[in-house]
Structure formats: C-alpha cells, structure tokens
Amino acid sequence: MAKQETVEHKYVYAFAEGNKDLKELLGGKGANLAEMTNLGLPVPPGFTITTEACKAYLVTGEEPDGLADQIAAHLASLEQAMGKRLGDPEDPLLVSVRSGAKFSMPGMMETVLNVGLNDRSVQGLARQASGADAQTSGGADRFAWDSYRRLIQMFGKTVCEVPGEEFEHALDDAKRAKGTHDDLDLDADDLRGLVDAYKKIFFKHTGREFPQEPREQLDLAIRAVFESWNAERAVLYRRQERIPADLGTAVNVVAMVFGNLGPDSGTGVAFTRDPASGAQGIYGDYLANAQGEDVVAGIRNTVPLQELERLDKKSYDELLGIMARLEGHYRDLCDIEFTIERGKLWMLQTRVGKRTAAAAFVIAGQLVDEGLIDLDEALHRVNGAQLAQLMFPRFRLDHEFQPVAKGIGASPGAASGKVVFTSARAVELAAEGESVILVRRETNPDDLNGMIAAQGILTSRGGKTSHAAVVARGMGKTCVSGADEIEVNVPQRRFVVGGQTVVEGDVVSIDGTTGKVYLGEVPVMPSEVVQYFEGSLDPEHVDNPLVRAVHRIMSHADGRRRLAVRTNADTGADAARARRFGAEGIGLCRTEHMFLGDRRELVERLILARDNTEREAALAALLPLQRADFEEIFREMDGMPVTVRLIDPPLHEFLPPLEQLAVNVAVAQERGEDVAQEEALLAAVRRMHEENPMLGLRGVRLGLVIPGLFAMQVRAIAEAAVTVTRSGAVARPEIMVPLVGAVQELETVRAEAEKIIAEVVGDSGVEVLIGTMIEVPRAALTAGQIAEAAQFFSFGTNDLTQMGWGFSRDDVEGAFFWRYLELGIFGISPFESIDRDGVGRLVRIAAEEGRAARPELKLGVCGEHGGDPESVHFFHEVGLDYVSCSPFRVPVARLEAGRAAVETDGSDSR
Ligand code: PEP
Ligand code: MG
After folding, report:
1. Which residues line ligand 1 (CB under 6 A)?
2. Using CA positions, which residue lies closest to atom 6 of ligand 1?
3. Can you tell me the mean pLDDT for 808-815?
4. Which of 396, 456, 656, 785 has minimal Cβ neighbours within 10 Å of its Cβ?
5. What is the mean pLDDT of the segment spanning 99-105?
C-alpha cells in the first residue's frame, strides 16, 4: 500500500510571510504588521497564529495538531533573530501575546505582555536593562520588577480569571504605604514587594504558583486569547457592530520592546489626520516612560504628540516620515501605535483608522483632491449610517449656558441626560426610557453595556484614543473624555466640578465636538448637513469642509445610482421636506391619517350607516376633504409620481376602544342621558371585533366589502389630479391597492376604478396608473398573474416580513427578539433589515415573475426597509426601480443606492 503523505496545515506565519490582504487569516493586526515588515518599517520581529487555529481550538478546546510544533519552530527563529532565548535567566527574550481579529474590536479581547519573565529571568532583564551603565541600574531594577508585576497581573486576570481589582488594590496599598498617588514613585524594592503580593493573590485564586516555565506561560496566554473571542463583551460588541460571530481571532506573538525604560523611552498612539474632524495634520497622544496599555487605558494623562518633537526630535521626524508613507501606501487615514525604546522607534501596529462620520466624508473628499483615490472609491469610504449620524442635531448655545468643564471632544454629537455612574444603572434607566449620560473616571471594556445604553459618555481621564473615545466613536455615540476638572466619585454616585456637586439623576449635557460639559439640559439645533439638504447652506459658497464633502459625494452617488429614491409622505409638509432632501416622488402616501382628527365623526357615520343613502352621504362629506389633501400633495410634488395607497387599516381602528365606549355608555345610562349614538357605536365595535385584526378586514378586503369606500378615494385622487393639472402643474398619480393576495381582488377594484377615472379625467391629459402592493406572500408567489392586472408593484416589506415569518410586527421585537439575536437566528431584526434568504426571496420571485409577465412593470419598495442601507443594496441587486423611505432617510438611501451601483462593479466596501 502506498504510504500516505499528510500535508501539515499551516497555522503560523512569520511577519515576513503575510501581507495586508490576509486579514481574514491573520487578523487586521497581524496582516498589517506583516505589511509594515515588508515595507521595511521598524517592526519588532514576531509571528501570527491564524484565525483558523483559533476556530479549530474553539470547536475542540484543544490546540489543533501541528500547532505546538509550528509555534516552537517560529519561536526558535524569533529567538535567533533577537539573539535571545525566551526566559533565559541571563538575557531573556520577552514577548507580547496579542489578539487581532479581521475587524478591529478595540479592547474587547485579551493581551498579555512580558511573557517569559520569571523569578530568575527578572534578574537577567534587570542586568540587561542596566547594560554597562551602573548609574542606571536602580532604574533598570525598577523596570524589571515593574515588568514582572505587570505580567503577573495581566496573566492572572486574563488567563486565570483572577479578579483584576485585587491587583489594583494591592497596587493602591503599595502607593499608600509610600504616600504617593503616582506609580512612578514606587521603586524597585516596592515593586519586588508588589510581585510577592501579586503572587499570593494568584495562588489564592488559582491554587497554584505563578507558572515559571516560559513556554507554559506562552501556551496558556495563546489559549486565553483564543478564548477571549467568546468573552461576553466581545460577543456583545460584535452584535452591536454586526461583525460575524464565526471569524475567530488571530494571535500575534511579538518580541517585546519597552517604552518604560526611562525618560528617553515612551509610547504613543497617533493618527495621520484628525479622526474627529478629518482635518489634515498628524494627531496623537504620547506618554513618556510608559507601556502601550497605559495610553489606551487612559490611566495617565498623555501629552499631544507634537511634544515629542521637543523630547526626541530624531524619533519624531522618523515617525512623521513613516506616517506619510503609510498614508500613501494605504491611501487612507491610518492609526498607529508605536514605542520608543531608548531613542529607537518601533512600530507596533497600524490600520486604516476608525473615524467619526464627519471625518469620513471630509477625508474621502481630501483624498480625492490629493489624487489618492477617485470619486467611486470615495463612495466606498463613507456610508449611510455615517450620513444619518451627521443629520443629528447639535446644541444651540447662547450665553445663558456656561460650560462647567471642558474635556476632549472625543466623539461628536450633542447629548443630554441623567447622570449615572455605573454601567448597570445606565442599562436600568435606559430601559425605563430615560436618556442617560454615563460618567466615569475612565471606561473599560466591562462598561460596554452601559455605553450602548447611554446617550453619551463623559470621562474625567483619558485622551482621544482612550477606551471610551475609541469605542464611542465606533458606535457613533457622543463622548467627552479627559474632562479633568470633574472629580468623579463612583461609590458615592456623584461628581464635583467647580465646587458644585452633581448626583445621580441630575441632568447634564455634553458636546462631543467641543468637549464642553454643561449642567442642565441644553436645547439643540439642526445639523449643517440637514441645512445643506434643506437648501439653506450653499455648498459652493459656505466655508465648511464637511458640507462641501457631503455635497460632492452625494452628487457623485446621484450620478452613479440606478435606483430612484422616493419618499413615504402623507402630508404636503413631509412631501416638501422630502423633495428638498432629494426625493424623486412619493412611493407611499398612506391615506389613513386623512380619516383621523375631526374626520373621525364622518368615519363613524360611514360605519353606522343604516342604508345606502346614509353611507353615500358620509362618503360625499369625506370626498372634498380627501380631494383637498391630494391636491396639496400633488402640487408639492409637481411633475413627480405620487403613489397613493387606498385605505388599509381595519375600520374599527377609527372607533373608540371597546372598554372606553362600554364605560361611557354605562355612565351615561346611569345618569339617564340619551345614549343612542354611543350604544350604536358600542354595538358596531362589538360586531367588528376581530381576534387577529392584522389578518382581518383590512386593505383590499375593505374595498370589496364596503361599497363606495375605494370609489370615493379614487374619485378624490382623480379629481385632485385634474384640478392641479388644469392649474398648470403636473400631477402623476399612481393608485395602489393594499394587501392583495389574488389577482381577482385587484381586477375587481381596478375595473371599478378605471370607470371612475375615465369619467373624471376626460381629456385633461392626466394619466393615472393602477398597481398593487406586494405584501402578502401569496401575492409574491402569484406575481405573474397579478402583474397582468397591475401597472406597478410596490413591495410592502413590513407586512411581507410579518406574514413571511409569521411575526406580529407590533409585538415581537420587544417581546423575544433578544433571544433570537442571542442565539444568532438572525443578526438584526428582519423588520429593520431585509431577510435576504426568506422575505428577500419572495421579493426576488415576485420581481422576476412580474417582469416576465409584463416587462414594463414598475417595481419599488415602500416598507421600512426602503431606507435601510443593507436592504437598499439588496433592492439594487434584485433590480427594483426605486426605494421609498421616510423623508429623513432619503439622503441615506440616495447615498447607499450610489454605493450599491459602484459595488456592483467589484470590490467589497467594508
Ligand atoms: C408595508 O406593509 O410594508 C407597508 C408599507 O404598509 P404598512 O406599513 O402601512 O402596512
Ligand atoms: Mg402593509
């Protein structure tokens, strides 16, 4: 028998073997470290364990075959490159073990630094750090013991689940004993004592000594990083950011370089442009004599990166050169992490940087100007969710409002709300419908729930790159960080600022653009982007880079998109606003609101009519009112199509609720009053009661059952169109029949409507189309037949989702979707974003079969999905002619329709 050769799966890549396009396999961090290595930039040597190894580990709980040997081989090469051995008692190589998934998940997974230190190698490290210079040996001892205590702390917390506070308390005790608040005042002896205290804590919680064997430390740290993919906060973050759950994380094992070796060392984080505003020029924070996590944790206040020029001009210049090179190479804003070890610059990370919505637009515009990208690419670089954020209001400030503190505008927007100090309280109050501002000294990844629940986040420590800032920007939440005039006291649930005390429940307002903090509620004003859309800011003349960039990119999207964008509007005012926002017609004018208010009385008369005469009188009274409504809308939409949907909800929705009527009748009877009218209404409500009104007498069924109702509406539409057209404007009505499931329903309504239209329109030149909603699954499945009787289809994806899934649209989202989301049955509510596989399939079938039967059939969508970015891409793919959405989402749909058109040409936009 022939010997079978087994080809070993490759789970480990040296940096020199990877590149930036291997994010799926090497994670973002690993792929970019590889890219920088290959660009010849100063990256400490290391290797990456693939996401595939992680996925295999997560399935079995064991490292996959071959992984241990591959790690050993790469470790040996690393040792050779560095001329040091892991854990060598004389001159130890230390490594960091860092997570890195395909999509950045800042602070959500684990990192262990200084792996390779133990009771013996800590001495070797001290000796090596002091070098020949005996003068610095005190500092070197301090550094070595500080590194060791950091390892025990991180390893204990991350790998062995020792509660982090225990280490914090021991550190606080050591500082208290020394009479200081600053870690840097602890000397080598203090830190040696702290190492002993940490080891005891470690033993108490794990029942074992802190592992001294370096390879064991490494293997356990790698496992812990794999497992952190499924940590609760990581799962929550992925759900929030819509990152798939099955990607796994890569693990990067990198030779340690030290920013805490003295004043000529340090560490920093930087952006190649301002990630908040997009303004050109580098932007970052630097912390001398510190390790990387000190910056990100926002524990000590940093200095602006520009200070580095004064501290270490050579490294500063080199850094600037590297940043310019990275921007040119990635053709985008990059963020980087770097460390300077005794005057030598090392690049620890780069990636295309997260940015605010405003910065995304501004930078995309700049990059086009700089010739680095074209306008199609600029469309890839922004998205509808960002545009929606820019349409949020901002504070209206006059002199009455004086800020009480100023921090860093870490994530823009304006937020007011009740102060809370813990994540749990934020979640509680938000669930009661309150707006809350989460106030912390600094946030950490455990605060994620509270950050999601809060309207805004305020911290007293940390820079623009602190945890709070990075996470808030990613979520589009308003955040002010580093407001250090505020003294936060979490246990007592209060903060003090300028002598004033603010307790839990007091209202504050924060401005994430300026960083200002106000007591009380500050009124808000509309965004400039909205003002631009509304036509009150002229992009050619206004000196506002954001407005200009939005204008330019939107114009390009409009030029590229194939989908038209209409709006859902049922008043003249909404129609006018949507038109200013770029709507090219009305895709859904719901007529039910026209039966509310003081017109209810007419509907009651219609329902209670005892004979034809009474019914006709009620309808005749409604006719001119409806006609006036339509005239107003047709005028506003002069020249554009207006789809008017005939009345849809069950008529008893227009009557008072049963209980209320019953009480009214009983009270009136008691008083001996005349209750004939109420009694009749009560009887009607009882008669019309339905167990499942959404599946009852509504939509087209009303038109077939209640004589004259649809006819009155059709007449009002046609008469209004004629009047408007005769006055010189152009009315283009499209009459839409709701809830059709069978072609015969539509045919019946259509036959009656056509007669009325012919009679009203005469030779006025008005053309009225008749079509149907496709919102019942049967309609989608018999679309070929229905198209014979319809000039257009408009997909009512709200009902189609309701009936496709059998989910009551009014109940299920609040009731149990959390469980479905938790189980991953869907990643987002199918009422929010179209379920491509199921409901989407119905849309696809209906579009195809409808068009096959009637090639000129016009196809649109008017359910909520019409304004959802993901869904817009789907409707583009399916080949609809237009989407229709609420006025405020019209610009979002225009942008996404442009992006969808560009994407059809190729690349992935994420
Ligand atoms: C729909 O069902 O998608 C629709 C647009 O109609 P409505 O929401 O009014 O039921
Ligand atoms: Mg509907």
Report:
1. 588, 590, 648, 775, 796-799, 862-863
2. 796
3. 79
4. 396
5. 92
Residue 551 a catalytic site member: no
Q: Say if pTM beats, i.e. exceeds, 0.90.
A: no
C-alpha of residue 797 to centroid of ligand 1, in Å:
7
What is the spatial distance between Cα 282 and Cα 471, in angstroms, rounded to a whole number? 21
Q: Measured in whole angstroms, how far is the alpha carbon of residue 733 from the centre of its chain?
A: 38
Ligand 1, residues 739, 862, 884: which to mutate, most atoms within 8 A of Cβ? 862
| Average pLDDT, rounded, for the chain | 91
Residue 465 has pLDDT above 70, yes or no: no
Instruction: Tell me how far the alpha carbon of residue 822 lies from the centroid of ligand 1, in angstroms.
Output: 28
Phi-psi group of 169: left, alpha or beta (phi > 0 → left; psi -120 to 50 → alpha; rest → beta): alpha
Tell how far the Cα of 739 is from the centroid of ligand 2, in angstroms.
7
Say if strands 507-511 and 414-420 run parallel, antiparallel, or are unpaired. antiparallel
Q: Which residue has the CA at smallest separation from atom 8 of ligand 1?
A: 798
| Mean of pLDDT values over 524-529 | 80
DSSP type of residue 236: H
Phi, psi at residue 402, to the nearest 5°? -110, 130
Q: Which atom of ligand 1 lies nearest, measured to the CA of 590? A: 9
Give me the sheet containing 516-519, strands edge to edge: 405-406, 516-519, 507-511, 414-420, 436-440, 456-459, 478-481, 408-411
* Closest approach atom of ligand 1 to CA 648: 9
Q: For residue range 364-418, what is the model confidence (pLDDT) as tens digits?
A: 999 999 999 999 999 999 999 999 889 876 787 666 788 999 998 888 789 999 9
Q: What is the pLDDT of residue 394?
A: 78
Buried b (16+ CB within 10 A) or exposed e, 398-436: eeebebbbbbbbbbbbbbbbbbbbbbebbbebbeeeeeb
Catalytic residue among 74, 467, 551, 873: 467
CA distances from 482 to 183, 269, 448, 450, 469 (A): 19, 16, 18, 18, 10
* Atom of ligand 1 lying closest to residue 797 CA: 3
Count of CB atoms situated within 10 Å of the CB of 293:
15
Q: What is the pLDDT of residue 295?
A: 66
The Cβ of residue 606 has, within 10 Å, a number of other Cβ atoms equal to: 23
For the sheet containing 303-304, what is the strand order? 303-304, 280-288, 266-273, 334-341, 344-352
Q: What is the pLDDT of residue 399?
A: 60
Residue 526: exposed, middle, or buried by beta-carbon count in 10 A (0-12, 13-18, 19+)?
Answer: middle
Q: Is the dihedral of CA 146, 148, 153, 155 positive or negative?
A: positive
Give pLDDT tens digits for 167-182. Answer: 999 999 999 999 988 8
% of the chain at pLDDT higher than 70: 95
Mean pLDDT computed over 433-454: 89
Annotation marks residue 541 as catalytic:
no
Residue with tokens 């490159």: 81
Task: Supply the pLDDT for residue 610.
Answer: 87
User: Which ligand sits nearest to residue 861's alpha carbon?
Assistant: 1
- C-alpha 806/C-alpha 801 separation (Å) is 8
| 862 alpha carbon – ligand 2 mean position (Å) | 9
pLDDT of residue 827: 84
Q: Find the 795 Cα to ligand 1 centroid distance in Å.
A: 9
- At residue 586, what are phi and psi to the nearest 5 degrees? -105, 125
Work out whether strand 408-411 and strand 494-497 pair parallel, antiparallel, or are unpaired: unpaired
Q: Lowest mean pLDDT of 279-288, 357-366, 670-679, 757-766, name the range.
A: 670-679
Nearest CA to ligand 1 atom 3: 796
Instruction: Name which residue sits closest to atom 10 of ligand 1, judged by CA.
Output: 799
Residue whose token pair is 């890195």: 100
Digit-coded pLDDT (tens) for 709-726: 999 999 999 999 999 999
Ramachandran sector of residue 11 (left: φ over 0; alpha: ψ -120 to 50; beta: rest): alpha
Q: Are strands 792-795 and 769-774 parallel, antiparallel or unpaired?
A: parallel
